[in-house]
Every structure is written in structure tokens, then in C-alpha cells.
Amino acid sequence: MGKFMTHQELKVMLLKDPAFRPAYEAESQNPQSGYQIIRHHGDGTEEVVFDSRVSGTDLPTNWMNRPDW
């Protein structure tokens, strides 16, 4: 089994990444009320599975039960 880490440990680790830190700081200064769930495919493409700003609804209860996940 892999080692678990706390949210704070993950944040500290990610803030060391020079690509992540500016995006994190920008989002912290201007947070958006919406969120997205994005699926990353093996070929490098991404699929927005859910976007709260577009649908205006709560997260579907079956979003993790897709057979292709």
C-alpha cells in the first residue's frame, strides 16, 4: 500500500513545483466559485466530465460509476 499524506503535506510538495505555484497563487487571489472534474486520457487529451459553472447543478451522484473509469 502507498504512503498517505495530509492535505498540508501535498500542498507543500506541490508549491515546490515552479509551474504549480504561480497558478495556485493566482487562484488564491481571485478564487472562482465554480469547479470542474476533468478526466485525463492516456493519449494526453482531457475531457471535462462536469463543470459547475455551465450546468448550474450539483455533482451527479454517478460520476465515478462510469464503466470506462
Protein architecture, described:
The chain is of the alpha+beta class and 69 residues long. It has one domain (7-55). It has three helices and two strands; from the N terminus they run H-H-E-E-H. The chain has helices at residues 7-15, 20-29, 52-55; strands at residues 36-40, 46-51. It has a two-stranded antiparallel ribbon with strand order 1-2. The radius of gyration is 15 Å and the shape is extended. The two termini are 21 Å apart. The relative contact order is 0.10.
What key phrases describe this protein's structure?
single chain, 69 residues, 3 helices, extended, alpha+beta
Topology:
Blueprint: H1 7-15, H2 20-29, E1 36-40, E2 46-51, H3 52-55
Shape: extended
The CA-CA distance between the termini, in Å, is 21 Å
Give Rg in angstroms. Answer: 15 Å
How many β-strand runs?
Answer: 2
Tally of individual domains: 1
Biggest beta sheet summary? 2 strands, antiparallel
What is the helix fraction of residues, given as a range?
Answer: 25-40%
Q: Let me know the average pLDDT.
A: 78
Poorly predicted parts: none
Number of helices: 3
**Portion in beta strands:** 15-25%
Q: Report strand order across the widest sheet.
A: 1-2
What is the structural class? alpha+beta
The run of helices and strands is: HHEEH
Task: Describe what is shown at a glance.
This protein has 69 residues and is α+β, with helices and mostly antiparallel strands.
